[in-house]
Design goal:
Layout: H1 3-18, H2 24-40, H3 45-59, H4 62-65, H5 70-86, E1 101-106, H6 113-127, E2 132-136, H7 144-155, H8 168-181, E3 186-190, H9 199-212, E4 216-222, H10 227-239, E5 244-248, H11 257-266, E6 270-274, E7 282-284, H12 287-294, H13 300-310, H14 313-324, H15 330-342, H16 345-352, H17 357-365, H18 370-381, H19 385-389, H20 396-406, H21 410-432
Parallel strand pairs: 1-3, 1-4, 2-3, 4-5, 5-6
Antiparallel strand pairs: 6-7
Helix pairs in contact: 1-2, 1-5, 2-3, 3-5, 5-12, 6-7, 8-9, 10-11, 14-21, 15-18, 18-20, 20-21
Length: 454
C-alpha cells in the first residue's frame, strides 16, 4: 500500500534532511519533485496543485528556515497537509437513525460491492453487536443474489429471500418491511452495478434512494483503477449524493492516487478500506495513520489494534507464564510465526513499523517473503514433540532428518535453531524484569533480524 509513493517521497526528504540549513530554492526544488511523485501516483491534478501550493506557502516561511532542523519541519508540514487532504478525522459508519438503519451500497460492476456489503455486515454484527439483514437488488448479474446469500451464510447474517420477477425498488421496499418486522438494527441494500456509468444505472439508484431514504450511501470503488476511481466517485457524488467511500483492494495499490484524491474531489470521507480477499479484511480509514505510513513513519497503533484482535488472550497468557520461567521452545516459536501470519505476514507488519522502508527493499531483493514463515514452520513441524520441547536434543543426525523431512537444508535448520536460542535468551532476561519490554504480539521476533540481509 503506497509503496511506490512512499519510496519516492522518502528519497526526496532524505536529501532535504542531509542539507542542514535550507534555502527557499531547496524547498521549491523539493516541492517540484513531490509534485511529480504525486502525479505519478495518479493523484488528481487539481488536488496536487492545491496540495503543493499549501505546503510551499508554509515551508518557505520563517518557521522552517530558522528552525534547528528545517528538513524535519518540512516533513511535518507535508504530513499535516497529507492528513488534511485525506480527511483529517476518522469517520466510521453512522447508525444514528431509527431502526432499521438503511445502508445503500452503490458502485460499478467489479468494484467488490457485494463482498464489501458482507464485510460491513460482519463488522457491524461482531464489533457493534447489531442485528443485520442484507438484500441484493441486483436482478441483472447472473448469480448476484446467490452470491450474497452464500456470503450471508458464511457470516451468519440473514439475506432477504428472492422473489423472481421483482424490480429493484420493490425488493428494496420489501427488505425494509422485512427488517422492521424482524427487529433488525441495520439493513444493507446491495444495488446492481454497470461496467460504466449510464443514465439507466443512475435512475435506478435514485429510485431506490427515494424509496428507502438511506442513512448511509456508500460508494464502493476499486483503488487499483486510480484516476478512473476518482472520476466514478465524482459522478456518483454529483448525481446520487454519497455519504462516504469504501476503497477496495488497497493492499494491492502501490500508488495510492485514488485514496489521496477521493476526499478532495467528492467532499465525502473514505470510511473503510478493503485490505484483502478474506471476509475480515476490512479496516476503518485513519487519515493520520495513512499519512504516517506514506512518509515511512509506520503505523504502530494499527499494528497493536490488529494484534489485539488476532491474538488469543489465552495464548498470550501462556506465553507470559513461560516467559516468567525463562522458557521458550520451538512450540512457542511456531506460535509466534503463526501470529505473524495472522497479522498479514511480514510485509504487512513491516509496513506498520517506523523506518522500515529500506529493510523491505532488502527483503525483496533477497527474496525473503511470507514463504520464509511457511518454511520455518515446516522445519518445526518436522521435529518430534520432544525435540520441540527440548532444543538441546538437536544433534547433527537429527538436523539432517529434520531438513529432509521439511524439504529444507541443514543450514536453514541451523538458522532457525540460532533464532530460537536468541529469543529464549531474550525471554529469560524479560522474565527477570517481570515482563517489561515484551515485544508486541506478532512483532518480528528478536533473532529473526539475523535472517534478513545485511
Amino acid at each position: 500500500m503506497f509503496d511506490s509513493l512512499s519510496d519516492k517521497l522518502g528519497g526526496i526528504f532524505d536529501n532535504l534532511k542531509r542539507r542542514g540549513a535550507l534555502k527557499e530554492g531547496d524547498v521549491r526544488e523539493a516541492m517540484r519533485e513531490v509534485r511529480i511523485a504525486l502525479l505519478e501516483a495518479d493523484v488528481a491534478l487539481s488536488v496536487v496543485k492545491d496540495f503543493i501550493a499549501k505546503v510551499t506557502t508554509r515551508a518557505v516561511g520563517q518557521e522552517v528556515m530558522k528552525s534547528v532542523s528545517p528538513g524535519q519541519m518540512v516533513i511535518k508540514i507535508v504530513n499535516d497537509q497529507l492528513v488534511e487532504m485525506l480527511g483529517s478525522d476518522t469517520v466510521g459508519i453512522s447508525l444514528a437513525a431509527p431502526s432499521p438503519v438503511p445502508i445503500l451500497m452503490v458502485g460499478l460492476q467489479g468494484s467488490g460491492k457485494t463482498t464489501t456489503a458482507a464485510k460491513i455486515a460482519r463488522r457491524l454484527k461482531e464489533k457493534d453487536n447489531k442485528k443485520v439483514m442484507m438484500a441484493s437488488l441486483d436482478i441483472y448479474r447472473p448469480a448476484a443474489m446467490e452470491q450474497l446469500k452464500i456470503l450471508g451464510e458464511q457470516i451468519d447474517v440473514p439475506t432477504l429471500p428472492v422473489i423472481e420477477g421483482q424490480l429493484p425498488v420493490d425488493i428494496a421496499k420489501r427488505a425494509m418491511t422485512a427488517a422492521r418486522l424482524q427487529g433488525m438494527d441495520v439493513v444493507i441494500l446491495d444495488t446492481a452495478g454497470r461496467l460504466h456509468i449510464d443514465q439507466t444505472l443512475m435512475a435506478e439508484v435514485v429510485g431506490i434512494r427515494e424509496a428507502t431514504s438511506p442513512h448511509e450511501t456508500l460508494l464502493v470503488v476499486d483503488s487499483l483503477t486510480g484516476q478512473d476511481a476518482v472520476n466514478v466517485a465524482q459522478s456518483f457524488s454529483e448525481q446520487i449524493g454519497i455519504t462516504g467511500v469504501v476503497l477496495t483492494r488497497m493492499d494491492g495499490d502501490g500508488r495510492g492516487g485514488a485514496a489521496l484524491s477521493m476526499r478532495a474531489v467528492t467532499g465525502q470521507p473514505i470510511k473503510l478500506v478493503g485490505t484483502g480477499e478474506k471476509i475480515e479484511d476490512l479496516e476503518e480509514f485513519h487519515p493520520d495513520r495513512v499519512a504516517s505510513r506514506i512518509l515511512g513513519m509506520g503505523d504502530v497503533v494499527s499494528l497493536v489494534e490488529k494484534a489485539a484482535e488476532t491474538i488469543e488472550a489465552e495464548d498470550a497468557e501462556k506465553m507470559i507464564k513461560k516467559m516468567k520461567k525463562g522458557q521458550f521452545d520451538f512450540d512457542d516459536l511456531r506460535s509466534q510465526l503463526r501470529q505473524m501470519k495472522k497479522l498479514g505476514g511480514m510485509a504487512s507488519i513491516l509496513g506498520m513499523l517506523p523506518g522500515i522502508g529500506k529493510m523491505k527493499k532488502q527483503m525483496a531483493s533477497a527474496n525473503i517473503d511470507d514463504s520464509l514463515l511457511k518454511r520455518q514452520e515446516a522445519i518445526i513441524n518436522s521435529m518430534t514433540p520432544k525435540e520441540r520441547e527440548r532444543p538441546k536434543l538437536l544433534n547433527a543426525s537429527r538436523k539432517k532428518r529434520i531438513a529432509a523431512g521439511s524439504g529444507s537444508t541443514v543450514q536453514e535448520v541451523n538458522k532457525l535453531i540460532k533464532m530460537q536460542k536468541q529469543m529464549a535468551g531474550m525471554m529469560k532476561k524479560m522474565g527477570k524484569m517481570g515482563g517489561r519490554g515484551m515485544p508486541l504480539p506478532g512483532q518480528i521476533p528478536p533473532g529473526m533480524e539475523g535472517l534478513l540481509p545485511k
